[in-house]
Known about the structure:
The protein is mainly β. The chain has one domain (20-144): Immunoglobulin-like (Sandwich). Helix content is 9%, strand content 48%. It is globular, with a radius of gyration of 17 Å. The model is unreliable at 3-18 and 146-161 (pLDDT under 50).
Amino acid sequence: MKNLVHLVLAFIVLSALPANVFAGDISIENAWIRTMPAGAKIAAGYLDISNLGNAADVLVSAKVENAARAEIHRMTIDGNGVMRMRAVPEGIEIAPGETVNLAPGALHLMIMGVMEPYAPGGEIEIELTFEVAGTLAAMFVVGDGPGVSNGMSMQEHSTND
């Protein structure tokens, strides 16, 4: 009986942990979307992409069913302290044995034209397409993950140069 209790407890703990998603040599971890402010039509997605293989791969696109489009973006701050966000149409290279972090204030997925706001605690499926590994579906948890405050509201975000 004691072993059964331990087994059940282990199952509960393990099932609460976010699952890694794999495609080829690519692993996706810690996928989350920032909680959307009321009335927002834009969301930001963050994740860690690891390349477990011996050859580079490139994240080339993202697709979300309940949004007009998703793009890979990079945030920078120029010498005058002006924050800029730009699309990264060439994608993100993940070198062999490396992990690339998409995080607030840096590289991220910009989800535009969200049809229905993402509810805190919900999960949103995003298809990520890589040059070598192909397309995989990853579940992104909606909430306030680490490093949420980057000083820019989603309404201020622009795709203009």
